[in-house]
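Anyone up for a design puzzle?
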């Protein structure tokens, strides 16, 4: 599902305009982004949680040249799926 599809689904489900749904979706994502930038954890019960993980710097190698490079420390967003969502997705899989 793309962001545009999410907006369309929200508009249909709530009987609102595409513009109103777009504002709601954008506000939600922007709020989540700002929370992660501040280092906060986001928990959506039954769905999952988002947090920022810190990764230490390390020495790596350029795979093409073999040259040693220093990789700087970084922070990356991380999503952990919730138990309920995991179970619902697993129950919905096709039996082949």
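Challenge accepted. My sequence:
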């Amino acid at each position: 599902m793309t962001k545009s599809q999410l907006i369309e689904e929200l508009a249909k489900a709530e009987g609102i305009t595409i513009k109103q749904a777009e504002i709601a979706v954008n506000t939600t994502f922007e709020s989540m982004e700002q929370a992660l930038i501040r280092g906060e954890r986001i928990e959506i019960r039954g769905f999952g949680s988002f947090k920022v993980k810190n990764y230490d710097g390390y020495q790596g190698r350029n795979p093409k040249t073999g040259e040693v490079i220093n990789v700087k420390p970084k922070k990356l967003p991380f999503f952990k799926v919730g138990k309920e969502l995991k179970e619902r997705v697993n129950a919905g899989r096709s039996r082949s």
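A detail worth pointing out: Helices lie at 3-14, 18-37, 83-91.
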